[in-house]
Design goal:
10% strand, 5-stranded mixed β-sheet, Beta Polymerase, domain 2, single chain, 2 domains, alpha+beta
Length: 255
Amino acid sequence: MPGDTITPEALVRDHTVYSCVMGSRAFGLATDGSDTDRRGVFLAPTATQWRFTKPPTHVEGPAPEQFSWELERFCELALRGNPNILECLHSPLVEHVDDTGRELLALRGAFLSRQVYDTFTRYALSQRRKLEADLRQHGAPRWKHAMHLLRLLGSCRDLLRTGELVIGVGDGRERLLAVKRGEIAWPEVEAWMARLADEADAALASSPLPAGPDRDRVEDFLYRARLRSALDALSQAGAYDEVMQRVVRPRHGAG
């Protein structure tokens, strides 16, 4: 029934609008032992938003290495320039997309702005500190994490230069995998990171990206998606009267 509680598993199973493969497979860095990381976006039925208990903003699973966000939360994070969310929108490995998902993908440019410089570099700095802590404590960084940090820094630089987010590493694959195997000395990796960061700094001033994301355009999309969800529920056979009773049910004791 509209408005009834829906399990997290059902939200992912029945209401996913977009899903893709992320991680090494999307980046072009997969090897024989790589996991398949799946990410998705679901649109919780509008009627579930009318209760005090709201649907979850994200769901882990139900399969291993699977994670999904509710559409509104996904859009909020994308507007903030969250690197993981923006990259999810640009995965070359799309597994499922419906009409709402296609609208979301068509909005990819609305989320991109020069603010990505702050979010990407802030995230990169936090990862760099973890690598340095590993180096102090264990004598070596986690090389896989070092590889992905280099990939992220290169992606940020190219995004600022071109205005387009491309997450595949292309010709950089073999050198990055050499980092993952620990075949490139840390001082060389460190210098590589510093060079990429400097190049991103230099690209910022002349970047073709706008100063901020197009929040109004994204909000309009979210409004229309919620409205369509409500209208779809109302159009189901026999559902109109039931939904209207829930919406306009008189208060207890009303005269």
